[in-house]
């Protein structure tokens, strides 16, 4: 890099010293920590995003959010030019860069990395980073740090998009790089238009079926509530009552993570809501779960990401069958591959159900970056985490074939059953956010499919019955001491703990258990399934004790 670039970087980096004794890493979904510790990290991630933009000659995104974490936390992650997560091979650089305190060391790291990755910093570089943040109070000052980092790379612009949901920012990055219109209004237009299109092709017999047109949505007191208020005004066939729009404390007793893990009624909901379809978003609106409220109890009936996935898979498979015949052959030369991606947290009953449908089900480690990558290997890849993160990906070649097929069918006759199926699939490909999981497009697709099937939420929930499960968190001395394999289902370090877990699990008929270090919190997560809730709870408690014995604060290692 030239002298001018060096001196800009040296100067700006000296304004962002690292907090002493803090070492962060690019975890499941970027860096997360207490917001007071993050300014220097966000500045450095700004530099990284700018470098990625220069290298790829494309627009890149930088999102400031800590999603479902408490309001005092914050975080930062990068959206790649495709709109997906940062390419994983850049993560080690993100780690070293963020932990480089001395400006000269940082300069050297950038120099070395730029050479290795062939990032043209010598000539006139060009780039653009779209900057978004959720509603956390710390977002504004962290966005300033990001801007300083981005603009420390000469020729790169930071475009501040203000307060956004995470999926909106990813969608914008993807759309910009495809040369499409990419404003916030374009986003709402695309979602509402494709939703309307899906509603238009609801089978005639189901049009007037008595499915309640109202859904009540918990916005987690985050960015989702205020943005959903804008979207809902463009929807005519659906009434959305948005609660927890930002007046209360973010994620406190509200939101998708709380609802999925605690399985109790979120703040702002009560007995008057019994009988309605309810849904919860998380703090940055990339997760979605449904629930209904039980009479005379503080419990909910949870309809989680696995069931959303099952509903989507069923619908897509049905449309493909109409279009192509039962064997999935779309014509002599085209065979559409439909695949489903889950993690070890998927309820065993959902996996069983999906396999019974004849679908190919594969597993990856936790984190959208893994699921998304796997799903993109199919013509139609559907992925979901149990907690409600997920989407549907369509391959370019399949969409191209679908467009062609639709044109052929248009020229032959009036709208046939087959053409309706093609039009539905095309509408789904536009409604669903193919950059990343999006609670808004997920919500609209669930609503459209329920209407299409003429199903109540109760009917949907009856697709299969969840096995009782339990999740616990255990605080340990050093969570990085746990190393897993086989999509996180087996612990290979510390030695001996997996055998102990196996012995415990064997005591429970149909028991299943795994542990893994969280990538967003400083804990080990324990997950269990068994034939009764008591058994799942008891197995989880025993394994938590094992974790404590092997790795806990009372252990001398
Ligand atoms: C069990 C669980 O819900 N894990 C979540 C959580 O990751 P952890 O690495 O488990 O902390 O946050 C991730 C980002 O939001 C999400 O992708 C993931 O599913
Ligand atoms: Mg989130």
From TrEMBL:
Keyword Ribonucleoprotein appears in the UniProt entry: no
Q: Name one GO cellular component term.
A: mitochondrion
Q: Which CDD domains match?
A: PGM3
Limits of the Alpha-D-phosphohexomutase alpha/beta/alpha domain: 57-89, 122-177
Which molecular function GO terms apply here? Answer: metal ion binding; phosphoacetylglucosamine mutase activity
Give the keywords, sorted.
Isomerase, Magnesium, Metal-binding, Phosphoprotein
Task performed by this protein: Interconverts GlcNAc-6-P and GlcNAc-1-P.
Its recorded name reads Phosphoacetylglucosamine mutase
Q: Which organism is it from?
A: Olea europaea subsp. europaea
């Amino acid at each position: 890099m030239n002298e001018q670039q060096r001196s800009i970087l040296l100067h700006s980096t000296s304004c962002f010293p690292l907090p002493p004794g803090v070492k962060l890493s690019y975890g499941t979904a970027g860096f997360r920590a207490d917001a007071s510790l993050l300014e220097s990290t966000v500045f450095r991630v700004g530099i990284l995003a700018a470098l990625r933009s220069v290298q790829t000659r494309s627009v890149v995104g930088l999102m400031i959010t800590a999603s479902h974490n408490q309001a005092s936390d914050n975080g930062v992650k990068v959206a790649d030019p495709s709109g997906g997560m940062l390419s994983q091979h850049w993560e080690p650089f993100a780690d070293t860069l963020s932990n480089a305190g001395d400006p000269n060391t940082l300069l050297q790291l950038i120099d070395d990395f730029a050479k290795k990755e062939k990032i043209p910093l010598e000539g006139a570089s060009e780039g653009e980073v779209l900057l978004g943040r959720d509603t956390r109070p710390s977002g504004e000052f962290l966005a300033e740090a990001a801007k300083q980092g981005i603009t420390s790379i000469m020729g790169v612009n930071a475009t501040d998009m203000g307060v956004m949901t995470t999926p909106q920012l990813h969608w914008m990055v993807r759309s910009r790089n495809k040369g499409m219109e990419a404003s916030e209004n374009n986003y709402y237009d695309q979602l509402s238009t494709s939703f309307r299109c899906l509603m238009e092709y609801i089978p005639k017999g189901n049009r007037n079926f008595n499915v309640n047109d109202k859904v009540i949505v918990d916005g987690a007191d985050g960015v989702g509530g205020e943005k959903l208020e804008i979207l809902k005004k463009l929807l005519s066939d659906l009434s959305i009552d948005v609660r927890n729009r930002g007046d209360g404390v973010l994620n406190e007793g509200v939101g998708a993570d709380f609802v999925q893990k605690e399985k109790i009624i979120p703040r702002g909901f009560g007995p008057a809501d019994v009988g309605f379809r309810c849904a919860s978003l998380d703090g940055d609106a990339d997760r979605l779960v449904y629930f209904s409220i039980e009479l005379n109890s503080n419990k909910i009936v949870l309809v989680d990401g696995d069931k959303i996935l099952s509903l989507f898979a069923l619908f897509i498979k049905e449309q493909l069958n109409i279009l192509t015949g039962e064997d999935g052959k779309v014509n002599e030369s085209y065979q559409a591959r439909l695949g489903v991606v889950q993690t070890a947290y998927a309820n065993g009953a959902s996996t069983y159900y999906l396999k019974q449908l004849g679908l190919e089900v594969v597993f990856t480690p936790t984190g959208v970056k893994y699921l998304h990558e796997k799903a993109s290997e199919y013509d139609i890849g559907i992925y979901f985490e149990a907690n409600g993160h997920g989407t549907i990906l369509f391959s370019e070649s399949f969409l191209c074939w679908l467009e062609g097929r639709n044109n052929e069918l248009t020229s032959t006759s009036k709208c046939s059953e087959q053409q309706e199926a093609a039009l539905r699939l095309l509408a789904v490909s536009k409604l669903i956010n193919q950059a990343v999981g999006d609670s808004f497009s997920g919500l609209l697709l669930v609503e459209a499919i329920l209407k299409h099937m003429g199903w109540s939420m109760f009917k949907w929930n009856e697709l299969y019955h969840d096995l009782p499960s339990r999740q616990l968190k255990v605080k340990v001395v050093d969570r990085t001491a746990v190393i897993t394999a086989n999509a996180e289902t087996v612990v290979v370090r510390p030695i001996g703990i997996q055998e102990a877990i196996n012995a415990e699990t064997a005591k429970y008929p149909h028991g299943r258990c795994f542990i893994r270090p969280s990538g967003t919190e400083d804990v080990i997560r324990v997950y269990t399934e068994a034939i009764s809730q008591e058994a799942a709870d008891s197995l989880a408690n025993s394994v938590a004790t094992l974790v404590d014995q092997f790795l806990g604060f009372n252990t001398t290692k």
